[in-house]
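#struct-queue
[09:14] JT: dropping the first one here, sequence first, then the structure tokens:
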Amino acid sequence: MKQSAVAVLLVMGMMMGSMSMVGCGMSANPANIDGVWKATLLDTNQSTVFTFGMSLIVNGDGTLAITNFQFNSNSPCFVSGETESGSFSLSGNFNGQVTGTLNFVVTSGSPAGNTLTLTGQANGNTISGHWTLTGGTGCTGSGTFTMTRMWGPRVNTENRRAFGDIYARPASIH
């Protein structure tokens, strides 16, 4: 009986210790870039070339689960059937500020042969970096991009109120 009581107390102590670590910011899933994002891509003249929105989730292996991807700008380079892939390498979570490297690729379906590649650095609710477009005639270019998290686990209440409609209907990101 005494041994059972000691075992129960030991297990409860371990559970309480685990809970206190979670309260101090430790968890099984540290801060990430999961959420709804909007991207703006500028060319070397600072003119907007592409805008798009999507929902991102970082898988356990660092690859991205990308859903509801939608270009919000018209382009003959990406008419329909695009596929998206990417990865995110977390390099820090300091006081709730996520930092890391994003690699993101959009491949055209129709017309075939166009590839948009983004490489950037995450800092909290913003990812910025460089993009390149390779492909057919008129479908080449490069510049800078900024992605802003519109809704996600680390976005504050004011942003949730302002952009809540985007999260509620992620298939129609505007």
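[09:21] JT: and here's the second one, same format:
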Amino acid sequence: MLASEARVSQKPLTEKSIYTIKICKKMKMDIQSYLKEWALNYFKNRDLIARNIEKIDSNDGDLVIKYKDRTETVKPLGNLSDFNVKQKSNDYINLICFNTRNNFDFLLKNWEDFIEFLNLKILFINPFSETEHKWIISPSVHVRISDDQSLKKGLLAIFETVSVLHDEEIGDNIKNIERL
């Protein structure tokens, strides 16, 4: 019943999506808080075997993860354009953004700036996808293993492995949180 009532772009939400929305509603999360929680779970699960995480703190909306050998900052942005690509850093940075065409286009438009961040990873996510939920790119590594002629085509192929979210769908999903 809930799946038929909660719709995004005329497609019914999956049971997992409805569960995610209910969790967000229960926790009264805004979208940045949701992305932060998603990232926290992702990085904890990724470390289950290695157990390299020593400590995770919250700092001005970001997560700061202290590993045995480095410290990483996780920035739950939603929109990639919220990241200042002109402020260069060699810090370990993970950007969490939605898998939208706008974010993908921003990556392409600012590719030359992104490749200068040696320790940057960008996670493009769609928590409501029925297929893959994320794809990850490290521009400074990717530029070394790809050629300029196939860059856009290759990135587009990776981008399309996760269902593309449209900006209005993000808002619709947030509204669905309040309806459920």
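[09:30] RK: nice, looked through the second one.
[09:31] RK: Residues 25 and 177 are 5 Å apart (CA to CA).
[09:31] JT: good to know. The beta strands are 7-8, 11-12, 53-59, 62-67, 71-78, 92-98, 120-125, 134-137.
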